[in-house]
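This section describes the prediction task in plain terms. A model, or a person checking by hand, is given the sequence of a single protein chain and must write out its three-dimensional structure as a string of C-alpha cells. No templates, partner chains or ligands are provided. The sample shown here is typical of the held-out split.
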Amino acid sequence: MAKPSDHPLFARISHWINLINFLALIITGFLIHFPMQGVNMNLVRNLHFFFMYFLLINGVVRIYYAVFGKHKDWRAFIPNKEDFKNLIPMLKYYMFLGKHPKQTNKYNPMQKAAYLALPIMAVIQAITGFLLYWPTKFTGLINALGGLAAVRGFHYIMMWLFIAIIVAHIYLVFTEARPQFWLMFFGKAEEKEDVPEDRVKSPDNVAL
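The expected answer:
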C-alpha cells in the first residue's frame, strides 16, 4: 500500500524540478534542432543551457541528500541479490509474458537501472551539448568522436532515449502505481483506491 513516507517532501520537490527541467530541455532542444522562423534562437539556446545547469545542480543536490540527508535513501537504488533474481521475471512482466515477481525492495531492478542511468546520461548529454556549443574550443575531442555531425547525432539520439524513458515512466505510473502519483505530487494518497486484487503487488515507486 502506498504511503506518504515513500516520498518525503525533499524527494518530491526534486522530482518536480526534474519534470520541469526535462520538459524545458526537450522543447528547447527540438527548437534548436529544427529552428522555426520568428523564434529568438539566442533566447532558446540560453534557456536550454539554463535548464541544463538547473538539471545538473538538482541532480547533485539529490545525490547529496540521498547519501547525507535525513532519509539517506541511497541504498534503495543499489542493486542487490533480489534484483538479479527478479531481473528476467520483471522483464517478462513488462513484456506481458509473465506475472509480477514478488519483491521486498522499494524499487524493482528495471527502475534501479533507469534511475542510475539517468544521471550518467544527463552528464553525457551536457558534455556533448558543450561540444556543440563551442566546437572550435574542443576540436580535438570532437574529431576523436567522429566529427561534429556525429556528436550532434549522438546528442539527438540521447534526447530520444530520455523521451522514451519518460514516456515509459509515465505509462507505468498510471497503469501500475497510480497511488504513487498522488503521493509524489500532492503528498497524500487518493481518497479512494480501486485496485483489483489480481493487480495488488509491491508498489513501483516513482521518485528519482
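For orientation: Residues 193-208 have pLDDT under 50 and may be disordered.
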